[in-house]
Design brief:
There is one protein chain. With 328 residues, the protein is α+β, with helices and mostly antiparallel strands. 29% of the residues lie in helices and 24% in strands. The chain is built from eight helices and 15 strands. An eight-stranded mixed beta sheet has the order 2-3-11-8-13-6-5-4. It has a five-stranded mixed beta sheet with strand order 1-10-9-12-7, with no helix packed on it. Strands 14-15 form a two-stranded antiparallel ribbon. The longest helix has 31 residues, at 142-172. The radius of gyration is 19 Å and the shape is globular.
């Protein structure tokens, strides 16, 4: 069994920055309010409630989703065990098609960290797992092997949930079923597991992720009880408290374009705590790469073109411009 560590489990840059004094703040943390986001029941799905949440919030809490609480617990436990391995062990063990990254959530299509012009470091490390390629990953390490099996089981649940939600959204939007079908391609789905280390030297004031929107159609987040997810609504930052055995669903950029801006891609960020690690397990799903998105608000584009533009902007500017690049 590989030796597990605490401080040695973090990427070296985090260990170094945690030992120095406070750094200048890039974003204010003094303007956050708590909020109860809309609740959607998957078992008794109400199309009007779903539509209202997508239009007015771009985010909702999903209950009665059908995922066993034991699966949540086992997945969180295995993720914690994996991240607690030494940094060097994670680099050696987490190999293709998985990828291991830190300091940025911006990745290339192969899963490698994207080099950007941004001076802001995202205080996180993560594991990227393309669900369609999980069977190719046959690790010898028993922890990774069991983690892969849990991800496969979890991924099947998330694919079911995403498909159900998207089909209901398409009904609300009166989309043609044949034309909307390639707008959610199951094979594009991937899971990212994020660990946000505590930031002692900043007095708790650091960002796990700086403000952004997701490029996906739908994102589904399972956050632990530490919390830290914040959304921007009505010119205020609002803290989304964690509630056990629920999921947080985000509307992404692709869904906003598909809906002619009827649905909102929610702007959000993640706050890092001073003394506590935070763990979140996130699922993202996209349109088929070459399917063309037609919208009265945007020029026709494919997700592949959108992804290439996002990566180009992130490299050059340090941030994603997103849908504004495709406005009519």
């Amino acid at each position: 069994m590989l030796e597990r560590s605490n401080l040695g489990s973090y990427p070296p840059v985090f260990r170094q920055l945690n030992s120095v004094g406070p750094q200048p703040k890039s974003y204010s943390m003094d303007d956050t309010h708590q909020v109860a986001v809309p609740r959607v029941d998957l078992e008794c799905l109400s199309l009007p409630k779903l539509g209202e949440a997508c239009q007015n919030w771009g985010i909702f809490r999903l209950v009665n989703h059908g995922i066993p609480s034991t699966l949540f617990t086992r997945l969180q436990h295995h993720a914690q065990m994996l991240f607690s391995l030494s940094f060097e062990s994670k680099q050696a063990l987490i190999t293709d098609p998985f990828s291991y990254f830190w300091g940025t959530p911006a990745l290339t299509s192969s899963g490698a960290a994207l080099k950007t012009a941004s001076p802001n470091m995202n205080w996180l490390e993560g594991l990227n797992a393309p669900l369609s390629q999980l069977t190719q990953f046959q690790p010898q390490d028993p922890l990774l092997r069991s983690f892969r099996l849990l991800l496969e089981e979890y991924g099947r649940h998330l694919s079911r949930i995403a498909t159900t939600l998207f089909q209901s959204m398409a009904k609300n939007l009166h989309l043609d079923p044949e034309q909307s079908e390639p707008m959610l391609e199951e094979s594009t789905g991937f899971i990212r597991v994020y660990r946000y280390p505590p930031r002692h030297s900043m007095g708790g004031e650091a960002w796990g992720m700086i403000p952004h929107t997701d490029s996906s159609v739908i994102s589904i987040v399972n956050q632990d009880q530490v919390g830290g997810l914040e959304i921007f609504k009505d010119n205020k930052w609002l803290l989304v408290d964690p509630i056990p055995n629920t999921l947080i669903v985000h509307i992404g950029d692709m869904m906003q374009a598909i809906s002619d801006d009827g649905y909102t891609s929610v702007r959000h960020r993640v706050r890092v705590k001073k003394q506590e690690e935070r763990l979140s397990i996130c699922y993202f799903v996209f349109p088929a790469e070459d399917s063309v998105i037609h919208s009265s608000k945007y020029k026709p584009f494919t997700y592949k073109e959108f992804q290439q533009q996002v990566q180009k902007d992130t490299r050059a500017l340090g941030y994603k411009v997103g849908l504004k690049r495709f406005k009519n």
